[in-house]
Amino acid sequence: MTRKVLFPQLQGGHGTNRGNPEPKPASKEDPDQRPVCTSIGKQQRQQQQQHRWETLLFMRPKSKLATHIVPAAHGFAFEVKASSHFRIVDLEGQQVVDFMAWALPYTRSTDCEHFSASYTRYALGGLAAPQEGECLYSNRDRKMFTLVADTVRTHDLLFMACNPGFYSRQGQPDHRSCATNFAEAMAPWGMEHWSDVIDPFNVFQNTPYYTLKALNSSKPGDYVEMRAEMDTVCAVSSCPYTGGGFNGGNVTRVAVVTEVVEDED
C-alpha cells in the first residue's frame, strides 16, 4: 500500500518522505508473527517474547546492563554516552512513554542543545515518527539518536507533554503530568520548573491522524532501542493521562534498560 504524503513540500529533508504510516491496532497483531521470533517451537517463542527486552541487540565488549523500573505516572532521567544503547520498555502494555533528551552538559540557557520534534519531522520529510535505521535530531539539526530496534513501529512526534495547565482546565489541578515528571527527574541536572521541558517523542503513542482510533498499540514487553550519537541526558515519563481510553485507561510502570560500558583496564 502506498503511503499518503500529507506535506510533499517537506521532501527536502535528510531522509525519504515516508508520509504517515497506517495505524496498526494492537488487537489485530498476532504476537507469534513479531520479527523477533524465528522458526522455533511455540513454547520457546513465548519465552523469547517474555524476556526479549532484557537483552540488548548490540552489546559491546565489557558491557553490562542496568535496568530501572519507572513507577506508573512518574519519570526517570539517565545519562547515555555516545555510541551506547538503551531501551524503553512497556512492561504491561498500552502505556505511552514520553521521551526527551538534552546534550551534555545540560544548561537552562536558551542555546542549550536538545531533542527537537520539529527538526526531526523536517529531517524525515513528514509527520511520521522515525523507522528503524532513522534518527532523532536536535535543535541544531544534528543527529542525537538512531532507532536501531522497534517492536511497535507506531509513535508520535506531534503532541506536547501533558502539563499542570492541561489538567487544570479539566478541573484536575493536582493531577500528575509528564511535564512535572520531567522537571522532577531532571532536577539533579539543574532543571527548575516544568516550563523548561521541550516537545517530546511520544513512544508507543498512535496518533498519526489525530484520531482516537487504536491509540494503544503496544503490548507487554514491547520496546524501542536507540543508539546515542552524542553524550546526552535523557528523561522518560510514564504518561499519567487516562482520558478517552488513553493508556488503556490504566497507567502502568515502564522500564529503561541502559548499556553500561566499563572503563578499560
UniProtKB/TrEMBL annotation:
Residues 1-50 are annotated as: Disordered. Residues 69-233 form the DUF1989 domain. PANTHER family: RE64534P (PTHR31527:SF0). This is DUF1989 domain-containing protein. It comes from Exophiala spinifera. The lineage of its organism: Eukaryota, Fungi, Dikarya, Ascomycota, Pezizomycotina.
